[in-house]
Design a protein that fits this description.
heterodimer; A: Pyruvate-ferredoxin Oxidoreductase, domain 3; 2 domains; seven-stranded mixed sheet; 15 helices; 16 strands; about 30% helix; elongated; B: alpha/beta; globular
């Protein structure tokens, strides 16, 4: 019995007399009977409103009663899960009103774009029925409703035209009273991809409340808005998002779930993928028994400030140190300053902030200006080492000043690394040997680049150039 | 490391929307999840992100999304749906400075209330707060485990400074809690979506699309999942949503306690501020002041036993957190009757160890037990303006 019956035999419809929702429910049941789909292969996803009462009428289907407008989004999630699960052919059918379509419009647009295998039945009675006949985005011009007592002045949304622009492949519009509505619904459900049927109805409770003649003439309403009935022009058929995704990961021989709730093997044992820079210590830093070192490196966006700081951290790891790196940049990422705060320590680092830097590196005017603006320079202790590019205009910093033409000699993109090399020449926190594993992990081109920058920097360090500011 | 924790926990579905400072989780999941046989995709907004996750979870997949305050605000509707419909899902909420758009690149701990009290009715959603990269990994796995076990949304509450700071991890020392799966109903079971024997039990899960008919709803419902007006059965099922969490509160409680039996003062903190607090405790002890420290990892349900243990014999409790109004302090207040409770609060940048030390010393919190002066300053809040920083979007 369960395999052939969809609508409860003794179903008591909760709808007002004459409401189109009852017709749609019966036509949906007829459509499912015609398709002879197993009830458990359907998940009826209902929205908020009178339309959302339908799930109780289908006792053999899976039902998910959602929040307002989100029925489509949850159905999308259920359909997308098919990309990962063993193919089940589960078909989400969404029952939603025009109010739900309005508040959840973006979900309909994305469902069409993704071409997920769901069928949406929009019960468009041109207003909110359950809450008292308020107008919606679908209310025709001049209609009187409880919230447009003088007539609606906002032109209604043409949902099918909108979804056509979102690349929907199956779109249709019917009257709830159409005798062949079941055939159109069946065609939509059988369609392998996103399908939507906009079903026009009149809310018997509130439709055209103050002007019965307009409310009753459903066909006139459709005509006045230029709505065509039947299948409308849509995109040519194309694969669903799930089909595309499955074929992509299957081509890479990724193990998929073999049954619901199962996990692929090996996950626990595998090394975390983001630990790309895992190293084991191969040398020992000289700061092992001293306090953590805080270094601020400032320059210009796009000149490898933050990636140079990351290389320093990786070298520090090789030296058996702990490292943290915090980056900062303006709102847009490709212009203005770029800044990294690095902390190196022999012990695990708790507070990652900067109370006072132990060394400041500035390789461009942008960087220097930011160090002034963000308070780093003001917080420096007397005698702090400042490694500053010669081109930067500076005014009365405190500390030991070290000025060299990093940008000119090493190029702007290598200036940060050269300055780091120069700092390490002054403060041997990370031994040269620690850089070996970092260099080994780089491409040959980048390796040469990094080596050259560090060499230039360490030469500057040997030349000296420190002076008290 | 949140993404790594999710992968290790068996997460198979991720839907995301870009937002600083949570975008890195989104990017790593987009890059890595397909290789694990999972699906990661971009949603057109945060409402969709969480709805897609809920939909996937209804089919049995472990699902997660990641966002920050502005996105979380949009998700709250669906968090409530997941709570009511008993759908497991994990939300990584990487806090930034609010309100509204606030400061995208500034950390904050201002979403405690927003996470805890986001449901109509004030139901408890488990909230875990990692303070570093290693804890991000461990607590994400715990978040999945409790989400599955209790069929509830769980929030992993970090912040920009935890989420966007690159730091060293001792891979060998990572805590790797065993994965927990939701309890699945058996084929042939009766149609009973929310049937529980005792009010604190967790109903068996049946997937949408499985052999057993599933009835899911976000409306007040009976044991069969049918929409009903409040009856004793409906009310009992509403209470069940809270009781099932409370019944497991002790098991969910995770703290890192560093107690000193001679201390009269307890410092409580969580998330990023717990790191500065731990450093401050070391500084105070070096200065000769006994002090106990409690880092709370399970913010909700509040780990009351651990708190009472830490507060035994304590006269002053400080709560350090990066928000203006002492959100978690006000949660703890009713549990600390008879003790002086003071906040160490600041917004705009991280609270530093020195600031915590000064606040505690200024308030006389480190005076040894039995040697109290008659009067104390009323509060220990930091009032200095934060260091100037460039604002983000």
């Amino acid at each position: 019995m369960e395999n052939t019956t969809y609508l409860a035999a003794d179903a008591k419809f909760p709808y007002c007399r004459g409401c189109g929702h009852a017709l749609v429910v019966r036509q949906l049941s007829r459509a499912l009977e015609g398709l002879a789909l197993p009830p458990r292969s359907i998940v009826l996803t209902t929205d908020i409103g009178c339309v959302g009462l339908a799930d109780s009428l289908f006792p053999y289907l899976h039902t998910v009663h959602t929040t307002h407008g989100r029925s489509t989004a949850m159905a999308i999630g259920m359909a997308l899960a098919e990309a990962v699960l063993p193919a089940s052919g589960l078909k989400p059918i969404v029952m939603i009103g025009d109010g739900g379509a309005m508040i959840g419009l973006l979900h309909l647009v994305h469902a069409a774009q993704l071409n997920v295998d769901i069928t949406v039945l929009v019960h468009n009675n041109f207003l909110f029925g359950m809450t008292g006949g308020q107008h919606s985005a679908f209310t025709p011009l001049d209609w009187s409703t409880s919230t447009t007592p003088e007539g609606n002045r906002v032109p209604p949304l043409d949902l099918l035209a909108l979804l056509r622009a979102a690349h929907a492949c199956f779109l249709a519009r019917q009257f709830a009273t159409d005798g062949d509505l079941n055939a159109v619904i069946a065609e939509a459900i059988a369609y392998p991809g996103f399908s939507l049927v906009e079903i026009l109805e009149i809310c018997t409770g509130y439709g055209g409340l103050k002007d019965k003649s307009k409310g009753a003439a459903l066909r006139e309403v459709a005509e006045s808005q230029g709505y065509s009935i039947g299948r409308t022009e849509a995109e040519r058929p194309r694969p669903t998002f799930v089909q595309l995704y499955r074929s992509e990961i299957e081509s890479k021989a990724v193990p998929l779930l073999t049954k619901e709730g199962s996990q692929p093997h090996g996950r626990e044992e595998s090394r975390p993928a983001t630990l790309q820079h895992a190293v084991s210590a191969n040398s020992r830093s000289e700061i092992h028994d001293s306090k953590p070192l805080h270094i601020v490196i400032a320059g210009t966006a796009g000149e490898r400030v933050q990636s140079s700081a990351a290389l320093l951290c990786r070298a520090a790891l090789s030296a058996g140190l702990y490292a943290t790196q915090k980056n900062d940049n303006p709102v847009t990422q490709g212009s203005g300053f770029s800044l990294s705060e690095v902390c190196l320590s022999a012990k695990p680092i708790e507070y990652t902030g900067l109370e006072s830097a132990d060394a400041v590196i500035a390789v461009s005017q942008d960087g220097w200006n930011e160090l002034k603006a963000n308070g780093t320079l003001a917080a420096l202790a007397p005698g702090t080492l400042l490694i500053i590019d010669s081109e930067i205009e500076i005014d009365s910093p405190t500390g030991r000043l070290f000025r060299q033409p990093f940008r000119r000699d090493a190029t702007p993109k290598r200036a940060a690394l050269a300055a780091i090399g120069c700092w390490l020449g002054n403060e041997p926190a990370v031994p040269d040997a620690a850089w070996d594993s970092v260099l080994d992990s780089l491409s040959s081109e980048r390796r040469a680049d990094v080596s050259e920058a560090l060499r230039i920097g360490s030469n500057f360090a040997r030349q000296g150039g420190t002076r008290a500011a | 490391m949140v993404a790594e924790g999710a992968l290790a926990a068996g997460c198979h579905f991720f839907a995301g929307y870009p937002i600083t400072p949570a975008s890195e989780i989104y990017e790593v999941m987009m890059r890595e999840l397909p290789g694990w046989g999972g699906l990661a995709l971009s949603a057109p907004d945060e409402i969709s992100s969480l709805c897609y996750c809920v939909g996937a979870s209804l089919r049995g997949l472990k699902a997660m999304t990641a966002t920050s305050g502005p996105g979380w605000a949009l998700m709250i509707e669906t968090v409530q749906y997941a709570l009511m419909s008993e759908t497991p899902v994990v939300i990584a909420l990487v806090q930034r400075l609010g309100p509204s758009t606030g400061g995208a690149t500034q950390g904050a701990q201002g979403d405690i209330f927003l996470a805890k009290f986001c449901t109509s009715g004030g139901y408890t959603i488990p909230v875990f707060a990692p303070s570093n990269a290693a804890e991000c990994y461990e607590l994400t796995r715990q978040a999945f485990n409790w989400s599955e076990r209790l069929r509830t949304p769980v929030v992993l509450l970090s912040d920009k400074e935890v989420g966007m700071t690159t730091e060293t991890i001792d891979e060998a020392a990572l805590a790797k809690p065993a994965n927990v799966e939701r309890t699945w109903g058996h084929a042939g079971a009766s149609v009973a979506a929310y049937d529980v024997e005792r009010v604190e039990d967790v109903p068996c899960f049946g997937p949408a699309g499985g052999e057993v008919k599933v009835t899911v709803t976000g409306s007040a419902h009976d044991r069969q999942g049918r929409l009903r007006k409040p009856s004793p059965e409906v009310v009992e099922l509403l209470a069940h949503l809270q009781r099932k969490i409370e019944a497991h509160a002790a098991d969910m409680a995770m703290v890192r306690a560093d107690l000193d039996p001679d201390a009269s003062c307890l410092l409580v903190s969580y998330g990023i501020t717990a790191r500065a607090a731990r450093q401050a405790v070391g500084m105070l002890r070096k200065q000769g002041f006994p002090i106990s420290f409690l880092q709370i990892q399970t913010l909700f349900p509040v780990p009351t036993e651990a708190l009472h243990r830490a507060a035994a014999g304590i006269r002053t409790v400080f709560v350090a957190e990066e928000n203006l109004t002492g959100q978690y302090r006000s949660v703890l207040a009713p549990l600390l009757n008879g003790r002086r409770l003071l906040g160490i609060n600041k917004i705009g940048s991280m609270i530093s160890p020195t600031e915590i030390v000064l606040a505690i010393r200024r308030a006389g919190g480190t005076i040894p037990r039995g040697d109290w002066p008659g009067e104390h300053p009323p509060e220990a809040d930091i009032h200095e303006p934060p260091r100037p920083r460039k604002a983000g979007v």
